[in-house]
Design brief:
The chain contains 3 helices and 9 strands; from the N terminus they run H-H-H-E-E-E-E-E-E-E-E-E. It is α+β, with helices and mostly antiparallel strands and 159 residues long. The longest helix is centred in the first third of the chain and has 13 residues. It is globular, with a radius of gyration of 15 Å.
């Protein structure tokens, strides 16, 4: 039941978004498609493992977990804007956590049945890179916790 309510919320939020963004498929928002060789050339070993192989970095090892600067967290694979620092919070999980995302063009999700449980996997909507998972134990106003691998993110500080 919790999974269904999470999915319903994610779908509802995805249609409201914070900002006006270009339409998917338009010239200003194109899906990114690359070969595995192109991804391997572009990404570090850890980024490739997380984004393309759906891996997870060890808790407390990611450099962005303790980042407190103001700015935008983007996908390390394609630069798509994902999270604003104003939605980041300390979850105690060992990974950067956010309670909301930038807009309806940031994320997509799918069911993850690995390890004998059902979780909601979070992917970049532009390149379909694995970012992490979303859980229903976050703070208000959404009640969600997007638990994201640092290796899947790049941070752009506000000037």
């Amino acid at each position: 039941m919790r999974l269904l309510s999470t999915l319903a919320f994610i779908i509802a939020v995805s249609f409201t978004g914070y900002a006006q963004s270009p339409e998917i498929g338009s010239e200003s928002f194109k899906k990114i498609e690359k070969t595995e060789a192109e991804w391997k050339e572009q990404l570090t070993n850890m980024q490739y493992y997380v984004l393309r192989k759906k891996g997870t970095e060890r808790a407390w090892t990611g450099e962005l977990n303790s980042n407190k600067k103001k700015g935008i967290y983007k996908c390390a694979g394609c630069g798509n804007e994902l999270f604003h620092s104003s939605t980041k919070f300390e979850s105690g999980s060992g990974w950067p956590s956010f309670y909301d995302y930038v807009n309806k063009y940031s994320l997509m999700d799918e069911a993850d049945y690995k390890y004998g449980m059902v979780r909601t996997e979070v992917l970049c909507k532009r390149c379909e890179g694995h970012l992490g998972h979303v859980f229903e134990d976050g703070p208000k106003p959404t009640g969600l916790r997007y638990c994201i691998n640092s290796a899947a993110l790049i941070f752009e500080e506000e000037k």
